[in-house]
Design a protein that fits this description.
By secondary structure, this protein is mostly helical. Helices cover 63% and strands 4% of the residues. Strand 6 and strand 7 form a beta hairpin. The mean pLDDT is 92.
Length: 563
């Protein structure tokens, strides 16, 4: 942003105002939960507990959750995403108390990221199209479902931060090439991987586009490619020191580990090497260098860091089948229910159509780049529906161009363009079209009254379905055997063995894991779990004594002293 660019400052003000208005509306709607620190997702709850543990004295490098599993589980997260919410809590707690400070943090941090995402989308729109599409793009981005769900109050897990970092890299990609744009893009790409691996495919495409730009334009794109490689290398090296965890040597590429850092460092050598080797070369030589470099990089990564091609390949096959393949956002798009397909992919597909129109009409590098990023997000979503988050927000510039074009055509086309661009309409339309499913009477495993009942009990070891774990750890003093985190393989497998067997086998698991309490709720959709069904019905064996039966239907049993 130029310091003297008045329209850019006005757009930044629009982004901040829109983010503040949306956050206020969302917070008012969900205040009952927010005020009690019942956050939208179990990962948000676990993130809050990780921050509490750190502020309570747990070392910066130790991300182990000691109230999970047998002796604690080293989480696959990074402290980078903890920094701002922790700073807000520490800054405010002396004046307003810890509880209010935590409420402020879980509302303010997503709002800050939402403002950044909206502003960056406006800047991307200005970079690829006329200035008058920037503000419509910002409005579309603010309501871009499902990306908008990542910025709701309470969403302090890392996905929204990753979206912002990807947008930073994308902005540097569509701006004129320079060493500075390359340095910023490389820094954003590295930090996004430090936060988590989910955006790695999109960042790989951005790196590939930077290389292709060099192949096509030569010296004009060389500086950006050099800057990208230097920043990717330097930032990863610095992060390997600052954000190295006590589980740095964990043998997987599921987060920022020694393996993923090594993969980033290896990848950074490709753009640096090409920029040096291809200095002043012809287009034909650049094509040969680029192709051979891509093949060499792929082979090197396959040999040196094969785990990065299957980040969750080390998860036990039984756990893969019973849990990981059933995680909603990890499912392939076309394996999801029709309502989910329409809701998640609607805006993304509309944006791709609008982007293809812009790319064909203008033949410009900027619009072609945006279209490629949209198609890459769609490819990710086809494999894992979470790709729709980036796809929805990448749709905003092209849909804004459609809105501006429709404005010149009259009121009816303009209304139609806004309808097509309204992200929240797609899930609403999907719900209206979907056939109503019969009501299922199972008890929620994260119901507030069930968690409250657990909180009222003396601290102990709790056997509960996988969804209860993250919420209960953040809301109670209990230690949970299972939770929805793949590194807790032993505890999660023990939980499934407990509920899926017979009472006699369950008693052996309870004895081995020194279980104090057992939770009965409906946490096994599509999975045969005979003992869970027996407990749901209140038919507990003699070694279990019911200590709570809450209004929502869940039950809690205490294990007898003799087990």
């Amino acid at each position: 942003m130029e310091w003297t660019d008045r329209s850019a400052w006005l757009n930044a003000l629009v982004a901040a105002s829109l983010a503040a208005a949306l956050t206020a509306a969302w917070a008012w709607r969900d205040w009952a939960n927010l005020s009690a620190l019942r956050l939208p997702d179990a990962d948000d709850m676990m993130r809050l507990q990780q921050i509490r543990d750190w502020l309570g004295g747990q070392p910066f490098a130790d991300l182990t959750q000691y109230r999970l599993g047998a002796v604690g589980v080293a989480m696959h997260w990074s402290r980078l995403a903890d920094l701002v919410p922790a700073a807000i809590i520490r800054l405010l707690e002396g004046a307003v108390g810890r509880h209010v400070a935590e409420i402020a943090a879980v509302i303010a941090w997503p709002a800050i990221l939402l403002a950044a995402a909206i502003a960056l989308t406006g800047r991307i729109a200005r970079a690829v199209g006329p200035a008058d599409i920037a503000r419509p793009a910002m409005i579309v981005a603010g309501f871009a479902y499902p990306a908008s769900t990542l910025f709701l109050p309470g969403r302090i897990d890392h996905h929204n931060l990753q979206i912002v970092l990807v947008l930073v890299a994308a902005l540097m990609l569509v701006r004129p090439g320079s060493l500075l744009t390359g340095l910023i893009a490389g820094t954003a790409a590295s930090l996004s991987i430090v936060v988590g691996m989910e955006t790695a495919p999109l960042l790989g495409i951005i790196g590939l586009l930077i290389m292709i730009d060099w192949v096509m334009d030569g010296h004009r794109a060389r500086d950006r490619m050099m800057g990208f490689g230097i920043a990717l290398c330097a930032t990863t090296l610095a992060a390997s020191v600052v954000f190295r965890t006590t589980a740095w040597g964990y043998s997987a590429c599921d987060g920022f580990t020694a393996i993923s850092a090594r993969a980033l460092m290896v990848a950074s050598f490709a753009p640096i090497g090409l920029a040096l080797a291809g200095w002043g070369s012809s287009a034909r030589v650049r094509v040969a260098l680029g192709g051979s470099s891509a093949l060499a990089l792929g082979a090197t990564l396959a040999i040196s860091t094969p785990q990065c091609f299957s980040p969750y390949g080390g998860v036990d096959p039984v756990l893969q089948s019973l849990w990981l393949t059933r995680v909603g956002e990890a499912q392939p798009l076309f394996a999801a229910p029709l309502a989910v397909e329409i809701g998640y992919a609607g805006l993304m597909l509309a944006g791709i159509a609008a982007g293809a129109w812009q790319a064909w009409r203008t033949r410009s590098r900027g619009w072609t780049t945006i279209l490629v990023l949209q198609l890459a997000a769609l490819a990710v979503a086809v494999t894992q529906v979470r790709g729709a988050y980036a796809g929805a927000i990448f749709a905003a510039p092209a849909l804004a161009a459609l809105i501006v074009a429709a404005r010149r055509a009259g009121a009816v086309p303009l209304a139609g363009a806004w309808v097509v661009s309204a992200g929240m309409l797609y899930p609403l339309a999907a719900q209206a079209m979907a056939t109503a499913a019969p009501a299922v009477g199972g008890a929620s495993c994260t119901a507030p009254d069930l968690i409250d009942a657990l909180r009222a009990l003396p601290a102990g070891r709790v056997m509960a379905p996988i969804d209860t774990g993250g919420v209960a750890i953040a809301s109670t003093r209990q230690r949970m055997i299972a939770a929805a985190y793949h590194r807790n393989g032993a505890g999660d497998l023990a939980m499934y063995a407990f509920y899926r067997g017979r009472a006699t086998a369950a008693r052996g698991v309870a004895r081995d894991w020194r279980v104090d309490y057992v939770v009965a709720c409906d946490g096994f959709a599509g999975v045969a779990a005979p003992f869970a069904r027996q407990l749901d019905a209140g038919r507990a064996p003699v070694w279990l004594r019911e200590v709570a039966h809450v209004t929502s239907g869940g039950r809690i049993f205490a294990v007898s002293a003799g087990r």
